[in-house]
Amino acid sequence: MKFAHLSDIHLGFQKNESLQKIEQQVFEDAMQKCISSGVDFILIPGDMFHVNIPEMRVQKYAFSMFRRVYDAGIPVYVVYGSHDFSPVANSVIDLLAEVGYIIKVTKATSNEDGSITLDFMTDSKTGAKIAGLSGLKVGKDLEWYQNLNRSNLESESGFKIFLFHGGISEMKTESGMDGDHMALSLLPKGFAYYAGGHMHKFNHQKFADYGHVVYPGTPFAGYHADLEENAKGQKRGFVLVEFEDTVKSVDFVELKNTQYEIIEVDANNRKVESVNLELNEKTKDIDASNKIIIIKVAGELTSGKTADVNISEIRDMLSNSGSLAVNISKNQLKSKEYSITEAKGANKDEVETNVFAENIGQLKFEQINLIGESGVKLAKKLLRELGQEQLINEKKNEYIPRIRNNALGILGVDTDDSQ
Ligand SMILES: [Mn+2]
Q: Separation of 165 CA from ligand 1 center, angstroms?
């Protein structure tokens, strides 16, 4: 007998069309491999979707995939993750469960004394007994586990699987992307297999009283940092488990996604011109076609603004040479010459005024209205304008020119709608 274990698929995470295709292709591969290798059931402990109600495109795709698995007679057991969790069962997961394509595992009862009792469900084909708890929003999980009635879970006989969504302290990795953790001892003891979700890298460990504790990791990406790990060679996939009355084998099944190039530039103690030069050189040197390009610029510039690092030119160069997507990380880039000093205030308006007033002295312009007190006023007007939201019923191609023209108007720049 065998089952598959996937997690953190984050369907709907990708915003770029090429990457959406990869996201779907990877998931389709996984489902196809599950069907062709004849698994008895599939486990998905959370973050199947990136948000609880993804756009219709994603829902439609998910339904077609789960329909395929359903038609192949393979039950899919799930718990919510931290991303697709909804406290009032308002998740696309609940739709999939309602039509019977997937089965929600958590059968929890709150008792009068505040404790929580969990019931098993039995997979009819294999007799495996499955229990699990959803991942909630950060911090809430711990309470549930602390109040969990463990005696019935631990004394149950048979081949037992526990589904959970959350980090385990004993399995922490150095990456720091895995957030909150709880002690392994909070999980009920004596299960043959602990199917984990939440940590995005494959991790399989054995502990006394805790059989196999396994995270398959994301099959593609659920955070931008995952793409960077992919570029650095992180293997992605899912887990295939053979079992009888105990676990016989746990195998990682790799899923290919796409090719990557990573361009890293250390900007520390350099002028912005020299950083731009290196970026240009490195970009010219790579073959970008059909690849995801990760660009990382980090460090503290001695001169120039961080905004002067010429990202848009690099982006154009790369998309002209056929890259699938360009992922730029500048959040560790600073500048000695121009750094924004924080300022306090009693309310949002005051904080904004003070931040502008505190920092405007760094600017050297000849135009009087851009500096000093009038500069602060102008900046505030501009900020207010740029912060305007799209109106109800306003189309994007109406909204963008409206904001742009108003902003240019505030700056006193002539606008020409004809172009
Ligand atoms: Mn996740």
A: 9
CA of 41 to the centre of ligand 1 (A): 21
* Confidence at 177, pLDDT banded by 50, 70, 90: low
Catalytic residues, by residue number, are 83
CA distance 327 to 294: 5
Do 72 and 136 fall within a single domain?
yes
Query: Ligand 1: distance of its center to the CA of 323 in Å?
Result: 26
The mean per-residue pLDDT over the stretch 273-299 comes to 94
Containing structural domain, residue 331: 258-339
Residue 126 CA to ligand 1 centre (angstroms): 29
Whole-model pTM over 0.85: no
How many independent structural domains does the chain possess? 3
Which of 24-28, 91-95, 225-229, 353-357 has the largest mean confidence?
24-28
Residue that finishes a domain, picked among 229, 254, 279? 254
DSSP 6: -
Contacts of 36 (CB under 8 A, 6+ apart): none
* Same-domain status, 225 and 193: yes
Q: Give the whole-angstrom CA distance, residue 123 versus residue 115.
A: 26
The answer to whether 6 and 43 have CB atoms below 8 angstroms apart is yes
Distance (Å, rounded) from C-alpha 255 to C-alpha 235? 8
Going 390 to 395 to 399 to 402, the CA torsion angle's sign is: negative
